[in-house]
Design brief:
Elements: H1 2-8, H2 11-23, H3 29-36, H4 41-53, E1 57-59, E2 65-67, E3 76-79, E4 82-85, H5 86-108, H6 114-154
Helix pairs in contact: 2-4, 2-6, 3-4, 5-6
């Protein structure tokens, strides 16, 4: 079932699923259509049906869909109702490390040797480069998810 769910959760269907999770309340086809700029409610309905068939959403008596199960999505993690790329967590780790290194360098700057300062400058540059690379990857992953929303507008 895991592979089937992963196949369902791509493209516009993934965008509809993320939209339903972010809303945190039951959504109908027209809500999804407006929220994702889809061409018609029938397109939204088709994707909501796919998600219901995959047992990720349930339909209530008013014809609205609500979250039944929050699934793990490859390359992303849920933080509450937000979907963040895995690389964003690494960015935050390296950002914390970078700030810690700056504080240590500032605290020891007056009393330490030149070699210590050079060593820390090297460490800061490596940490800074890693931080920038992970941020770049996280932003491109977020854009890919956003492009599925833009692509859904064409449907």
């Amino acid at each position: 079932m895991t592979n089937d769910v992963n196949e369902v959760l791509e493209g516009t269907t993934l965008s509809v699923y993320v939209y339903a999770v972010k809303e945190g309340k039951p959504v109908g086809p027209r809500d999804v259509m407006r929220g994702l700029n889809l061409g018609s409610p029938s397109v939204a309905y088709r994707h909501l049906q796919k998600l219901e068939d995959a047992k990720l959403l349930m339909k209530n008596e008013y014809g609205e869909y609500f979250l039944k199960k929050k699934r793990k999505i490859n390359g992303y993690r849920w933080l509450g109702r937000r979907l963040l790329p895995n690389s964003m967590y690494y960015f935050y780790f390296f950002l914390g490390l970078f700030i810690t290194e700056i504080l240590v360098l500032a605290y020891h700057f007056r009393v330490e040797t030149y070699e210590f300062k050079v060593f820390f400058a090297l460490g800061l540059s490596i940490t800074g480069i890693a931080m920038v690379l992970f941020l770049k990857e996280a932003l491109s992953s977020s854009k890919r998810l956003g492009k599925t929303k833009a692509r859904s507008k064409e449907e």
